[in-house]
């Protein structure tokens, strides 16, 4: 490529001059640049140098604020090349630049920024850049912000985005700023305002020719990354990041995923339709059940009740009853006639038997039968008295056995009765026996209660493992629960101390000396106020003493074992140090062996528990329960001994109760026996006298009968005739009753038959009738209750009973039908509700009656067409996805790799015209394929899935093909872990740079940029990035880029003048205009290769300005 030197720098000789270069940059109130500033830029290369913090990057950031998106951070050099993140509060931003933030100060805990302007008042800021092309045409872009005093973020600002096709003096905005940059005021200055960033950026890209095919955002983003000096370590990453945009394979994969999701949606709709059919299929059965049940209820309503003659059921019953009554009447008539004949015959026979008996008795009386009759009566009376007297005597003998007595005669019995009455009158003996029993029983109960209480106490002691009484522990637990504290946070003093083994005999004395202090609860003072507030409403049966004490004190107290505190062991706890100190001060009793030694000490204690405190003292209380100790082993042992003693005592008391109970029962048995004896008289138990009387009358009967043998025969005959008369009389009476009963029954049935027949005739004459359907229904109901072949009377009874049973059956059938309707309606409501819940539809209700038609239409549509259409659509979509989309993706993967390789060629053509390293060498971009087993397997699976779908003949095969395809599709989704490796073809190749000599022979390979020196890496990056920028700007095939400015913030400071010059030459050889920022100590290598140079200075008041070292004359570039 032949280059010529022009006012705009080196440009290709064949260029038509279509290029925009930045001519000047204007600032007003931007960062440290207070007021208006203007920097003229060379068309070739301009250097901005200065000390760190002088304001170089502030100028660079103004360019970012003017043309780049809000995601590009300011101050790329100082921010370490961070890109792609919105400007945050910790980065420089429009508000801080507009106010000229200097630093921050902290006063009274509040951070305040020190600014050059806008402190408590409104201010404004503006940036403008003017570009010019080779024809002299100019274009200016303006960004301005009105900053209210209360503004905290960009959203609080009034923003101006404007352009004009001419030059513009930024100072003219001063008047518009007074109107808060209103559109009318801006238009009056010749500017064209743009309401949105999108509109503004589109105007910039169109006017300045930024971006190929209208996509200027990528080009501007690359300009931002170049300015920020983004660090990339490999040629491969550099080229893929800078040059290659997102390949079409990603969009194709997205389209495949989209088509598959549509297919899945169709499948879901098909499955949903099938599920809907399954959900609604039962409703027809429910509807039929409702209709059948309604017909049953209608039938029951039509026939009416049996007790209403006007009803169908009543009319049918009348007819049936007439039929049965006529049969009963005929049967009764036959039975009546038969009973009448039987009565007449029985009367004749009975009268003959009476005449015969009377004749025999008269003969017997004449033969002496009166004396015999009297003897028989008396003998029978004696026999009757003998039974009760024997029973009374047997009862008396049983009680006599209890008493150990006998009563053989009247005198002995009289003496026994006297003794019984005397004994029953003695109440003291009875009370004595009862008192003895009551005392024994009360004693046993008391012992059992004590044993139960002691067992409970032992169980509680096992749970707590301390010696504190149960009521105190219960009260502490209630207070702890109310206060939200644990028991460990509320220890009793006694739980924290134990008597040392060698001083065990003093345990009782120590318990007496400590007294109530041992059962005091200790609480951390930090919890005391809250504890008092929380427990105030708690009521406990036992009063609790507590004390707030400091915790965590150092244990530095030395104790003397001659005193009580020194003879104790202490459990390690937060309260221990305080407790030792408290005991040492309040209970410093000297332990003495004799009470005579008590007066020798201010405070002393004897082993019996007597204390002395000066002239005061205390004694007594021995035998109290021990409360001291870390454990309650001693208490458990004592409780076991007491329980054993109580068990022995209880066993003895139980034996005493058993004896008392036996004595009381014996006394009561004797008393009962005596009471029976006292109630009897001798005549009630004198069996021998009654037997003697019975035997005497038996002797008289024998005498009479032995003297006249004929009397016995006549007596026997008279007895037989009496029995015969009695039997015949009974038969006659029964025959009479039977005849009368049958006559009465016949009369009743006859009347009933006539009445029923009349009622039936009346009903028929009134036009009532029973339909065949109703008759069949009623006949079927009575078929199991018609009495079968039973007699007419029985059949009628069965019919009468059947009426109530059938009525109950009808009621049950009605209830069953109503329940069936209710259940079916409930099932319909559930089905409808479930359907609407799963598939909401505002046009569908859930009423089982009103909505049934809608749901049946839905079911009909699903069964008739929708499900079938969805199944066809599912098959077509599956074949389409296989035939088109999967094929397209497979082809696109191959085509995208070829396209990347094809795009390398124009970049290499640009690089071929630029000397690299020296005039005899060039740089070339090489690309090679990167194969992996994962990608190969994926491509094979892609083709296999297509084949599987093509071969699928039935629903089962298509479903299997779908499931297999879903696994493939899930791998090419954006969020899939291997999406980038499979679909992004940029990962399918590896890019490197090759250094060639004049003969196109290989000299060196450049892969890892970081392995090169600073100068080499700068030159390499310049060549590759420059060519990439040409490509992104859309000028890859042109002789020069239409948009020339490139800002480099501290990007050319790592090499000597030779390599820096070659890097700058590379940029300029590609047709770019350079604006380079560098610190003072790094600019010497750059100065020989720039056309203009500015020194950025800052005053002591933090105000910056650009001092031209090598300036650009006015008019240059126009």
UniProtKB/TrEMBL annotation:
**Native species:** Nocardia panacis
Q: Which domain of life is it from?
A: Bacteria
Recite the UniProt keywords alphabetically: Coiled coil, DNA damage, DNA repair, SOS response
Pfam families, alphabetized: AAA_29 (PF13555), SbcC_Walker_B (PF13558)
What InterPro entries does the record tag this protein with? P-loop_NTPase
Q: Key word DNA damage present in the record?
A: yes
Write out the coiled-coil annotation as residue ranges. Answer: 636-663
Protein name as catalogued:
AAA family ATPase
Is DNA repair tagged as a keyword?
A: yes
Gene Ontology BP, a term: double-strand break repair
